[in-house]
Amino acid sequence: MACHTVHAKRELVRIVRSPTGEVAVDLRGKAPGRGAYLDPDQACLERGLREGVLAKALEIPIDATTAERLKVELDEAARVRQKETA
Q1: Where are the extended beta strands (E) located within 21-76?
Q2: pLDDT per residue as tens digits for the range 21-57
Q3: How far is it, in rounded angstroms, from Cα 6 to Cα 31?
């Protein structure tokens, strides 16, 4: 998404805006709401936040608190993805 690289969907991490407006990492990829897919890499998330493409894709502004929480959740998601592929 933000880094414009192409990967298989199962290699990406879904960020979702729930119907109530909460933004979170969705590891299962099945949570209801509007989603955007990222590499499980901090650089991709940072670029998506900095350039505003993540906020645009989710159709919601992303504040600093939410951005920091997403960074932590993405780190955990990256660890889970590594275990799945190992």
Answers
A1: 23-26, 34-38
A2: 999 999 888 999 999 999 888 999 999 999 999 999 9
A3: 23
User: H-helix or E-strand containing 14?
Assistant: strand 13-17
What's the whole-number mean pLDDT along residues 53-65?
96
Query: Domains plus CATH for the chain?
Result: 9-85 (3.30.1230.10)
How many residues comprise the chain?
Answer: 86
Place of tokens 């960020």: 15
Residue whose pair of structure tokens reads 């993405």 in the numeric block:
74
- As a whole number of angstroms, the distance between CA 8 and CA 23 comes to 23
Element (H, E) at 74: helix 64-85
